[in-house]
Design brief:
Elements lengths: L10 E5 L4 H12 L3 E6 L2 H9 L6 E5 L5 H14 L6 E4 L14 H29 L4 E5 L12 H20 L6 E7 L1 E2 L15 H7 L4 E2 L4 H10 L4 E4 L1 H12 L1 H10 L7
Parallel strand pairs: 1-2, 1-4, 2-3, 4-5, 5-6, 6-9, 7-8
Length: 272
């Protein structure tokens, strides 16, 4: 990383830092000496995360990623707290809703587009001047998903947002290359976070219980931070988490017809 700025301690701002992947990544980077900032709409969740971080190099800012102006305020405040620099934005906040597209309420569609896609775009816009300042070697990591690799049934709008994030990431990789800013997409499979603890609309089981019963891999959240670390320090576009995501990325690239057949016949739970 560059040593530009008034402070040489590297700084990362993480959205969705009040739980799940965001919390795990915050703890991982803090343990390695980074100044960690988290943004979330969940104030208590952020306080809980900060309480798990030893030392004083931590910061939280209540942030609704759908608010473009709020992004500027949050990142300016964090950069000031971190000694005048931001080296990495982990654009991680997201929500999950599913079901047949014809039955999906318009408010769910709007929420998915606003949080999962617009929120990522707004974050990139707001982070750019900060990342340019600490380049070369600064990084933007956007959380996509296994759903950004395959088109899973009953996840059409969610998949649309995650495919869009991968396209957005690839475009920015080209657009920001001359600035020395790395851009990559994190593509986790099913991770054991609060999102998959939700009760499925068509059963009394949680999404996690349904996945486990179907034999689908659910990876612990502890598998994610190391991959985010690799994305910050590496030079790939897509970083998968879990065997399922890695396998499907490979098959989608080299055997797309097989993936399509499996999605049409059995869905995401198929053994590929």
């Amino acid at each position: 990383m560059s040593n530009n700025g008034s402070n040489t301690r590297r700084a990362i701002f993480i959205t969705g830092g009040g739980s799940g992947i965001g919390r795990a990544v915050a703890l991982y980077f803090a343990e390695r000496g980074w100044f960690v900032g988290i943004g979330d709409v969940n104030q208590q969740g952020m306080e809980d995360t900060l309480g798990m971080i030893e030392g004083g190099f931590k910061y939280s800012h209540k942030l609704d990623v759908r608010d473009r102006d709020a992004w500027d305020v949050a990142l300016k405040a964090f950069a000031t707290a971190a000694g005048g620099r931001i080296d990495v934005l982990f654009n991680n906040a997201g929500i999950g809703h599913g079901g047949p597209v014809v039955d999906q309420p318009s408010e769910e569609v709007v929420a998915l587009l606003d949080v999962n896609l617009k929120g990522v775009i707004y974050g990139a816009q707001a982070a750019y001047p900060h990342l340019k300042k600490t380049a070369p070697g600064s990084a933007l990591v956007n959380t996509a998903s296994l759903a950004g690799i395959i088109g899973a049934p009953n996840l059409s709008v969610y998949c649309a947002t995650k495919w869009a994030i991968r396209g957005f990431t690839q475009s920015l990789d080209a657009e920001w290359a001359s600035d020395g800013i790395k851009v990559s997409a994190l593509c986790p499979g099913f991770i054991d976070t609060p999102i998959i603890e939700q009760i499925s609309a068509d059963s009394n089981q949680s999404v996690k219980e349904t996945l486990v019963d179907a034999g689908v891999e659910v990876s612990p959240v502890s598998t994610v931070p190391k991959v985010v670390w690799e994305a910050v320090h590496g030079d790939k576009l897509d970083y998968t988490v879990g065997k399922t995501a890695g396998r499907l990325l490979f098959l989608k690239r080299w055997m797309p017809g097989r993936v399509r057949k499996e999605m049409r016949s059995q869905g995401i739970g198929a053994e590929l």
